[in-house]
Amino acid sequence: MKFRIFTAFLLLILMFTFSTSFLFSQPIDSLRSNAIKVFIDCGGCDLDYTRKEVTFVNYVREVREADVYVLITSMATGGGGEDLSIMFNGQGRFNGMKDTLHYIAAPDETDDEMRTGATKIFKAGLVRYVAHTPLINEVSIIYEAGDDEKIVEDKWKSWVFTIDFNGFTNAEQSYLNFSTWSSVSIEKITPKWKTEFDASNSYNESRFDLGDEIIVGLNRSYYFSNTTVFSLSDHWSAGGFAQSSHSTYNNTSLSFSIYPAIEYNIFKYQAATQRQLTFRYYIGPAFYQYIDTTIYDKLDEIVLRNKLAVGFKSMQKWGSVEGSLSGMALFDDFNKNNVNLWTSLSIRILRGLSFNVSGSVSLVHDQIALSKAGASSEEILLQQRQLETQYSFWTSFGISYTFGSLYNNVVNPRFEL
pTM of this prediction? Predict the structure, then answer.
């Protein structure tokens, strides 16, 4: 009986929605006659703002219906800002008309300043396509004269500093959790050199009151790393990586490693926002001092590791794919190795239908730091100790389908906040 009442109520809501929609519907005057059709591919962009500011085109939801396909990607700049690459690809009557423009956002720009600046570049890139339509007679170009060009001296010499501190607490009558995390990042990036220093510290404590017993879980760690890379050519780079860490979870009182490396990119680095295929090789020594004696009866040791990694990335009209395949092993014992595969894939199958999947799988045979004493039940349940395993993996996937009106020009922000 309740199910039938609920079904009838749902039908009434649907009938009311559709009837009011048809009753108050009007011709969609936001569809511009003779305007080009544009599809924007950009994760994280404020497309509502773009549609409100750029009104001389028609926005469509399907890439195959567009006259111009626009792909927007970003990369971090050496000064801590963003380099937005706006790639225009003509389709149909504009086939072969391609262009790429850039907007460089300063590190202290707000989201509003960034979207305003990027939208100006987006407008400029559309002009060459609009020029081939009657709508060009209704478009005007305004030059906003600025100050004369000046040479500005950078007192920081391209160095950028970032400091973070985060704290979190959560409690009930029989449970308390407290954690902190802090980090410092220092970097300098120029066309030829890139050097980065990162340091972090974390503390996590959990207390469970079982009445006659209190169980405490505690994890502490710190981490320091340096990456220095030199550009050899459009395809080759050389670098070095140094790391130091402490982790109660990993049974390491102190670890230190240094890895010289070399990398080759099949494509030129200038096209990195759109596609990459890199091959990278590392080799170097690593020192470990353990908290407890390991399963190999070691309290400290020095090992020589080497690693080969292949990374790829491609962003195209059909979607995007990126990932990496890497293998690391002890140089004198290749049986102690770790192989990892990670990938993320997004595919437009057909109009309105897209499929997304990502995941990672590792084959683990190099757990040389495992404690010989093992882990107690409390440490296992509270994830205080790393356990022996031969593999690990995670995955996520999903599918979405959108259908209805092809056009997507109107913005209505009512009842959104």
Answer: 0.68
